[in-house]
Amino acid sequence: MLKKKMLRDIRKNLSQFITIFLMVFIGVMAYAGIESYMDGMEKTANKYYQENNLQDLNVMGANFTEEDLKEIKKIENVKDAERKLTLNGTTDGDRTLLLSFIETNNISKFYVFEGEGFNPESEGVWIDKYYADENNYKIGDEITIKYDKIELKEKVKGIVNIPDHVYDVKDSSEIYPDHKEFGVAYLSINELPEYFRIFNNVMVDVDNKDKKDEVKNKIEEKVENAIAVTNIEDGASYTSYQGEIDEGKTYIGVFSGLFLFIAMLSVITTMTRVVKKQRVQIGTLKALGFKKSKILLHYIGYGFWISLVASLAGLVGGYYLIGNFFISMEMAFFEMPNGAPSMNISSYIMAVLVVLTVSFITYLTCRKILKENAAETLRSKLPNVKNNSLNITTRGIFKKLGFSSKWNIRDIVRNKMRTFMGIAGVTGCAMLIVCAFGMFDSMNYFIELQFEKLYNFNYKLVLNENISKENLNKIEEKYGANTSKTLGIEIKNGDIKEANNVFVTDANELIRFVNKDGEFTEVNSDEGIYVTYKLAETKGYKMGDEISWHIYGDNKYYTSKIIGFNKDPQNQNVTMTRKYLESLGVEYKPDSLYTNQDLKDVKEIENVELIQDKNALKDGMENMLQTMRKMIILIIVIAILLGAIIIYNLGILSYTEKQYQFATLKVLGFKDKKIRKIFTEQNNWIAIISIIIGIPLGYYLTDWLFKTAIEEHYDFGASIKMITYVIAGVGTFIVSYVVSKILARKVKNIDMVTSLKGNE
Amino acid sequence: MEKIVEIKKLTKSYKVGENEFNALDNIDLSLNKGEFIVILGPSGAGKSTLLNLIGGMDTPSKGDILIDGENISKYNEKQLNDYRAENIGFIFQFYNILPTLTVLENVELVRDIVKNPIDSKEALKGVGLEKHKNKFPSQLSGGEQQRVSIARAIAKNPKLLLCDEPTGALDSKTGVEVLKLLRKQCDGNEGANTVIIVTHNSLIAEIADTVVHVKNGKIESVTSNEHPKRIDEVGW
Fold it and tell me: What average pLDDT does this structure show over A553-558?
């Protein structure tokens, strides 16, 4: 019979139970969805890397011989090694292809979608799936591949994914991969003319990951042709993907945790109220002789079943809606097969915790009521008020307040917990809205900083590696001598060697620098090096410190003094002037040239590998933001939804509790309008207080996210526009106001007799 | 005559703010089995406190309460619960029936508590509500709701039927109907059921076998009605 009672009670208080359901559902869905997305990213990659044997080390060099390969294979803990020739080629329509010529394919093995696997004897080309899809290539189609003077006509043998090419872009200034214009192609080395069969890369697979550094050192020691040995974890493809996971884990994890927390605050308040409202019924059951345990179980059931069903729905919704949504978005960015969300054990634990918490709160509330004797329980309980706490409205400025304000102050004093929970919930939502919009602003600020302040050029010319001095002079004469060079270096920090790069500038005013506050600063001293603030912060560098470094491919170490700092939003490195580099005895041979001339119609420049339009780079960046925008919109939608539900729930709680008092006011002759005003006034106060607290908290949350959670090589904090605060504040207030207005309409329908009797 | 209730030196004190006051002050009282007993007194006299203590809904500060020879004042919470379930039927001024259960379900509820309840439909028939069995409390008048509460109480077949102002919220005509039902409980079961009514309405005392007058937490008098009036004879 009590089951029937429970079902009917739920039906009777449907709106409250629906809000409890929705809050648990949304909270768990957001949490489980984001977790399943993050975990899915990780598991998908682990499985793929494992099954397709991603290499552990990359050895770079100019020409690896058969002997070098044998030497590497002989090193202890080396399981296997394969040589590869990697080049940037072009293909039909002047698109760029990253070409790899291989002998075997046991390391970084293809995942074949269509066609066949690699066969060294087979003529043909294997291309990456996105490039094939974007350009409509099918098995058997012919592609022309060009490199320098070599031209190969190859049939597509396979459409594949390659573990080493999860993320690849045309060059480092591009962030969002353009799969139409850039692709990855693998061919057998036998396709090249004999004289060209050289290898500039060896992929090494080790049998014990802990011995990687030892293997690395031994290769450096034994293989003369090896210029640099890098861990796969330092490679662009691997780090970009991993970075996304690490970033997401804190970054979005914070949101999911907050959503759940805010939702739970509200659920707990509501559940407590629902049970308290049943006080007389609990007393009646007790008076009838129902066992305490039976009554407890009955009421725990309210919280338990609702939260159980909502949590289960949240888990399913999280996996299928949010998890799939994010994963499919990521997989448009990263090239990896079988991307799927994965339900994380922590989501199940969280769901169980939610159910247990709700049940436990119900239990505590019910137990508290049951502790009283039956006779006491049957009496309606007046709120516990300290005698003098209500005097607040009879003193000082409060004395002059109108009836409505006094009434509301007293009501708040009497219902501190409900008010506190309401403020906490709405504050959380205001904070999330500020943060979500703030992320937009901050990203836009970052783009502006990068492309308007730091990049003071219109075009960047990537120079040919082998450009002669005369040809360089010619280009400089025509486009201006504003150049730079980026060198791969290794910095020695105690016993640890870390890869980094040094940006050598001779770009004059076309590349500018800023200080911590985004104000222009000069990088013009030829006495030492400049490091970025974030690099200095993470490595503990101070002004005047000396660091020891060497250029990759050259074992000579240099010691340089830190003479200044600069802020770089997306690259944490070392900067020096051309003169300083030359003073160390290193030749300055630029790799890039910057110009403000109009090169809109220039397709090709001799000795220039690539002409980059700054606006195109900017567009690429904005493209990436487009992806982020979707995520942020989802966060905003959840925040607003949750906020509206919390405000509605709070409203309905306070309305139900005040119904009797409103009925009394109505009997006394108060007009509906006046009563509605009393009701909405309190909700408005709560909204305003929450907005005042939530907005600065939103700023700090955004700043914290960018500063600590984001990938190591980025450096930008929150930069939120005033209008964002206004939107978040006004938006939150409007939601609160509309919800209060809707609820206030109920005042008209208060049946004075029933309300007053109901309270007896 | 066999005693159903024996109260010895019973005190019940409450704390109000910093002061303690005695709702019942060192009282002694014996009540006979099978009688229709009315506890009469003004508001705040301690009538309801006395009823709650007899019914095991509250515990005394001092003294003993013997029900059918068993000292319930020594009972712990669980024992009190069992005592209520097996022996007591409560009828309240404001009915206290569960609003989300139908009339029949409200009565059937006692099947979850007692081993041998009276058939719920029979109990409803006894109070004349068999036609309304599928209605919800909100669809009934006050008198009808009180009859549901009586049906629920008698379905337990309790030794003691304790009624706290059972007609307090009803008009006089409906009140008479309810009193008739309660008297029937007392008269109909070969003296096995005792009915105790708490009221401030002195007219009800005229139909009682025994009238207990309570004032300021003390028993003022206990009088036996040799010839209680029939309900219809009282000038309501």
Answer: 86
